[in-house]
UniProtKB/TrEMBL annotation:
Domain annotation Adenylate kinase active site lid: ranges: 127-163
Described purpose of this protein according to its UniProt entry: Catalyzes the reversible transfer of the terminal phosphate group between ATP and AMP. Plays an important role in cellular energy homeostasis and in adenine nucleotide metabolism.
Binding positions for ATP per the UniProt entry: G10, A11, G12, K13, G14, T15, R127, V137, F138, G200
Glycoprotein listed as a keyword: no
Lineage per the UniProt record: Bacteria, Bacillati, Actinomycetota, Actinomycetes, Kitasatosporales
Subcellular location: Cytoplasm
GO cellular component, one term: cytoplasm
Family that this chain belongs to: Belongs to the adenylate kinase family.
Matches recorded under Pfam families: ADK, ADK_lid
SUPFAM superfamilies recorded: P-loop containing nucleoside triphosphate hydrolases
Region (NMP): 30-59
Gene: adk
Designated name of the protein: Adenylate kinase
Domain notes from UniProt: Consists of three domains, a large central CORE domain and two small peripheral domains, NMPbind and LID, which undergo movements during catalysis. The LID domain closes over the site of phosphoryl transfer upon ATP binding. Assembling and dissambling the active center during each catalytic cycle provides an effective means to prevent ATP hydrolysis.
Length: 217
C-alpha cells in the first residue's frame, strides 16, 4: 500500500507510522529522516537542504520533493510506503501526484488522524523532558513521575521545552490549519481520505487505522 499520513501536531503520527509500517511491511518515510539521511550522506540534495537550514530558512519544496522521490525509488518501497510529514502543503501534494504518475503508480489512501484541538494542546503542553536524558519523557496527566519535577529513571530535572508551551503549540496548530490541512480536501476530491479518531491507547488507534485501511470502517 502507498499511504500518506496526515494529522495535527500531537496526533501521534510518528508512533502510528512506525506501527502501521511494520504491520503492512512497508517503509516508513518521514521528512525528518529524509533530511538527516541526505545530510549525513552528503548528497547534493542534502547539501542544499543544509545550506538553507544553516541560514535559518525553510527548505524549498523542490528539495524536499527530490529527497522523497529518491527514497520512494529505492527497492524496499517498490510495493508501497508510508509518508509521514510529506506532503506538507497542496503544492507538494500536486508534485507527489506528478512523480507517482510518472512511475505509473498511485496512492491507495490518505489516513487522517483526527484529534480535538484542546486535546492536542493538553498532550503537547503537558510533556516534561529530563534535562539529563531527553529520551526520558513524562506527562503531567498521562505519565506522571513519582516525584513532581524529578525523572524516575535518573533523578534529572524535568522541564517543559519552549516548543511545548501552549502559545507555541497553538501557533503550530495555526500553521497546520493554513498550510497542511488543505491537502485533506485536495485528496478527498480523489476519494482517498480515510479519517479516524486518534484518541485512546496507541494499540487501539493502530487497530482502528488498520481496519479503516482494509475498508472495515
Amino acid at each position: 500500500m502507498r499511504i500518506v499520513l496526515v494529522g495535527p501536531p500531537g496526533a501521534g503520527k510518528g508512533t502510528q507510522a512506525a506501527f502501521l509500517a511494520k504491520n503492512l511491511s512497508i517503509p516508513h518515510i518521514s521528512t525528518g529522516d529524509l533530511f538527516r539521511a541526505n545530510i549525513s550522506q552528503g548528497t547534493e540534495l542534502g547539501k542544499r537542504a543544509k545550506a538553507f537550514m544553516d541560514a535559518g530558512n525553510l527548505v524549498p519544496d523542490e528539495v524536499t520533493i527530490g529527497m522523497a522521490k529518491d527514497r520512494m525509488a529505492q527497492p524496499d518501497a517498490e510495493h508501497g510506503f508510508l509518508l509521514d510529514g510529506f506532503p506538507r502543503n497542496v503544492s507538494q501534494a500536486e508534485a507527489l501526484d506528478v512523480a507517482l504518475k510518472a512511475d505509473d503508480v498511485k496512492l491507495d489512501a490518505v489516513l487522517d488522524l483526527e484529534v480535538p484541538e484542546d486535546e492536542v494542546v493538553k498532550r503537547i503542553a503537558g510533556r516534561r523532558i529530563c534535562r539529563k536524558d531527553s529520551s526520558h519523557v513524562f506527562h503531567v496527566t498521562y505519565s506522571q513521575p513519582e516525584q513532581e519535577g524529578v525523572c524516575d529513571v535518573c533523578g534529572g530535572e524535568l522541564y517543559q521545552r519552549e516548543d511545548d508551551s501552549e502559545d507555541t503549540v497553538r501557533k503550530r496548530l495555526e500553521v497546520y490549519h493554513t498550510q497542511t490541512e488543505p491537502i485533506i480536501d485536495y485528496y478527498r476530491t480523489q476519494g482517498l481520505v480515510v479519517t479516524i479518531s486518534a484518541l485512546g491507547k496507541v494499540d487501539e488507534v493502530t487497530e482502528r487505522a488498520m481496519d479503516a485501511l482494509k475498508g472495515d470502517k
